[in-house]
Amino acid sequence: MSLEKNIERIADALEAIARQKPASFLAAEAAVPAASEEAPKKEKTKPTPAPTAIEASAAPETTAPVKVTIEQLRAVGTALISAGKAEKMKEVLAKYKVEKLSALPENNYADVLAELQALNA
């Protein structure tokens, strides 16, 4: 059989399929109101305005403070050392009366991280 004949047979089969409506399509079509029928109208609602800058700043903070880990401190410290800023890092640690990050009390992690990140900027 030639290619043209095969294409014609496929086209004929597709046309036959397109002419048939499956039962599920008929059921769905019956459930949808006709275009002439009026659909119930929805009431229009006014959009809620976004809070102003003053209202937003007056809202209480709901974000919990992020807990800084020793691993974060070490990562920033390693970057500082690689950048040749080891002495600056030692100066920050000296302010907290420690010589190494592992000796730093956890309650100082966030402050030290901020200072080390400032040095790395």
Task: Provide a short characterization of the protein structure.
The protein has 121 residues and is mostly helical. The protein has a domain at 70-120. It is 55% helix and 0% strand.
Any descriptors?
121 residues, mainly alpha, 0% strand, elongated
Q: What does this protein structure show overall?
A:
Helix content is 55%, strand content 0%. The chain has helices at 3-19, 23-31, 53-58, 70-82, 86-95, 109-120. It has a domain at 70-120. The model has no long low-confidence stretch (mean pLDDT 77).
* Beta strand count: 0
Helix content: 55-70%
- SSE run: HHHHHH
CA-CA gap between termini: 75 Å
- Cα radius of gyration in angstroms: 35 Å
Helix segment tally: 6
Largest sheet: none
Strand fraction: under 5%
Low-confidence stretches are none
Mean of pLDDT: 77
Query: Which of globular, elongated, flat, extended, rod-shaped describes the shape?
Result: elongated
Structural class label: mainly alpha
